[in-house]
Each structure stands twice: as C-alpha cells, then as structure tokens.
Amino acid sequence: MLNHTSGARDVERVLDWFERALLPAVAAEPPALPLAYDRDPPVATSWPNHRLGAGLLDVDGLRRLPLFQPLGEAELERIAGLAGERAVNAGEVIVEQWDATREFYVVLEGTAVVRTAERHLDDIGPGDFFGEIAALDWGASFGYPRLATVTATSPMRLLVLASADLLVLMNEMPQISAQVSRAMRDRLPGL
Predict the structure, then answer these.
(1) Which tens digit of pLDDT belongs to each residue from 131-182?
(2) Residue 160 sits in a domain of what CATH number?
(3) Which of 21, 55, 73, 108 is most buried, judged by most C-beta within 10 A?
(4) Residue 25 within any structural domain of the chain
C-alpha cells in the first residue's frame, strides 16, 4: 500500500479487507456489516485535544498572530475552518527530529524549545510557527523529514494545519506564502 505506484483503488481495497476481517470467521448467517465510518475524516476533528468540530478557532485570536495579520475576515474564517487545535503539556515532544510527519503548527499560547541532536536552535512562543519545511511537498512527492525536535516548555495551544491545507492556503493567500517561504529560506540553508 505504501508503494509509489499505489493509488486510491489500492487503498480502498486494503480498507475493504479490514472491514471484512472484522466479521466473525464462522457464522450461520452473515452478520450485518459494521457501522459506516468516514474514510476521510476532516483534519480539524482528528487532532488530539481538538475542540469538537472544525471552524471553532477564534477569528479575532488569529488576527492577532503575525502570520495572519495582513488577512481579511473571509481569509481568517477560511483558516479557522481548515485548522485544528492541539493542546500540549509542558515537556511533551510536539515533533521529533527525523520523523516523517507533515503538519504545520502556529503557536497560539505557550512556549517551546527547538533543538537538533547537536544544538539548541530557537525558543518559540505565541505567534511563531514551525513545520513548514516538512509540510510542503517539494515535487514528485518528495518531502523533508522533521529537521529538529520541538518540545513544549510550558502548556501550549497550537493551531495545526495538514500539509495539503497549508499548500492550499499558500496558493490562495500570497501574504502567507511570502512569510512561510521567507522562514524556509532562513531555516534551510542552501535554498
């Protein structure tokens, strides 16, 4: 399923196999199929500790963040509808260096430290963002792993965007694209 030639049909076949595997092996009469499930749940409702449902982020709170300050009301509402929220405890690792996760984060509240195995890179707080290098598709489905570990140094609230949603927003909103691109150039020498 993880082969570069896998497609939607292959994924559907695997999911169907799992559905059938849940049925009892021996039954006099075929049991009812399991309840329907959403194979593509909205990203905003799948994050741990996310408030129930999408679109619950405070638009006024987003407006105060430097990344989103140049945006209008409709654009802020679009972001609030796409983004999830994640609560993090002090000491919790948000992303680990070399992981293949692809989410993009904006700090709403709290602080964190950014480190590689060798050195301290930065201390971040409200308004800062991270994860843009791993979140972006660099062509032909090539992406970078996480280049640093980010660990909360206080309780945090994070806005979380899936990689695909970040790409959509960057295409629709040049103000976000410019800021994220500038951060990438600063954080990834040689671009």
Answers:
(1) 999 888 665 566 788 989 999 999 999 999 999 899 999 999 999 999 999 9
(2) 2.60.120.10
(3) 108
(4) no
